[in-house]
């Protein structure tokens, strides 16, 4: 977003494990800008407010408004959405994860791919990147990751469930539908690799991007998969104008409290403060906040 907010993570290292994790997430109230606006204004504004995953944000906004107004769902920009997922996953896999594991990032390879991703050679260029530099780097990353965080299989693809979210949005159920919680840093890393392969195959095959929506007159909820998880947009339209609006991003669920980080670090032991800090950094990266964060790990 133009002003994404800030995330602060604090914890204590007791000489063996990481304890007393505290998460402090501050997000700007962007959705209040939509109150009283015409629904089409929201659709036009969303991509300018959200710089990360802008295509996914717009697709979710469009679908939520469509169902709230009883309109036929507009076709999303499938190709751009697949490329966006590839971009976010490749950014992490080629730049951030190697650094988090003490390896050199593949910066030049990523920059070269970014330059061609929108052209006719996007599929061939992505395949060359995935089969070459990414595959080589992934072997090295997994070797280090599995030596410290253990072995694990990729997570199942995220399920879109707008109907359950619509009940919550309308007040028919008190609790927000739970967000699937990863329990292994290694599993998250392998999931990113699997998502790259799936997105490449979908881009090559011209497949539709997964967008799901549910609604009743005046009420709409839409969900879209992103590289970070399921993105939800919810709207209530009254008398032709937006009365309520909500954006629920994966970051909002993963960093609502310390439980997701604590789950990823459970049963892990570290021989030093530096290695504990590296382990905490990797856990944060696995949950992948879409905003800047600071980390303070105290040696108790």
In short:
The chain is of the alpha+beta class. 48% of the residues lie in helices and 19% in strands.
Characterize the structure shown.
The chain starts with 5 loop residues before the first strand and ends with a strand. Helices cover 48% and strands 19% of the residues. A hairpin with a 2-residue loop joins strand 4 and strand 5. The protein is globular. 39% of the residues are buried. With 300 residues, the protein is of the alpha+beta class. It has helices spanning 39-49, 54-68, 78-100, 107-116, 122-149, 162-169, 185-205, 250-254, 259-265, 273-287, and strands at residues 6-13, 18-26, 211-216, 219-226, 229-238, 241-248, 293-299. It is built from ten helices and seven strands. The model has no long low-confidence stretch (mean pLDDT 94). The chain has a four-stranded antiparallel sheet, sandwiched between helices. Strands 2-1-7 form a three-stranded mixed sheet, covered by helices on one side.
Element layout with pairings:
Blueprint: E1 6-13, E2 18-26, H1 39-49, H2 54-68, H3 78-100, H4 107-116, H5 122-149, H6 162-169, H7 185-205, E3 211-216, E4 219-226, E5 229-238, E6 241-248, H8 250-254, H9 259-265, H10 273-287, E7 293-299
Parallel strand pairs: 1-7
Antiparallel strand pairs: 1-2, 3-4, 4-5, 5-6
Helix pairs in contact: 1-2, 3-4, 3-5, 3-7, 3-10, 4-5, 5-7, 9-10
């Amino acid at each position: 977003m133009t002003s994404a907010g800030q995330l602060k993570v604090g914890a204590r290292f007791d000489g063996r494990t990481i304890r007393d994790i505290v998460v402090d997430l501050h997000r700007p109230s962007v959705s209040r800008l939509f109150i009283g606006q015409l629904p089409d204004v929201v659709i036009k504004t969303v991509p300018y407010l959200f710089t990360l995953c802008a295509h996914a944000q717009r697709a979710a906004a469009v679908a939520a408004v469509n169902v709230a107004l009883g309109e036929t769902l507009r076709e999303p920009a499938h190709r751009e959405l697949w490329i966006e997922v590839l971009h976010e996953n490749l950014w992490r896999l080629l730049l951030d994860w190697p650094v988090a594991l003490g390896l050199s990032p593949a910066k030049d390879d990523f920059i070269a791919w970014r330059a061609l991703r929108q052209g006719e050679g996007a599929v061939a260029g992505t395949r060359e990147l995935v089969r070459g530099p990414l595959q080589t780097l992934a072997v090295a990353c997994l070797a280090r990751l599995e030596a410290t965080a253990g072995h694990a299989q990729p997570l199942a693809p995220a399920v879109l469930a707008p109907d359950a979210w619509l009940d919550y949005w309308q007040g028919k159920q008190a609790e927000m539908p739970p967000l699937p919680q990863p329990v292994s840093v290694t599993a998250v890393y392998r999931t990113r690799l699997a998502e790259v392969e799936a997105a490449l195959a979908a881009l090559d095959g011209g497949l539709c991007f997964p967008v799901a929506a549910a609604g009743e007159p005046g009420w709409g909820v839409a969900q879209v998969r992103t590289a970070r998880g399921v993105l939800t947009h919810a709207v209530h339209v009254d008398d032709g104008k937006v009365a309520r609006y909500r954006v629920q991003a994966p970051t909002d669920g993963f960093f609502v409290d310390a439980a997701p980080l604590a789950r990823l670090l459970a049963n892990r032991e570290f021989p030093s403060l530096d290695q504990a800090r590296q382990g905490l950094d990797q856990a944060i990266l696995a949950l992948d906040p879409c905003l800047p964060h600071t980390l303070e790990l105290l040696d108790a």
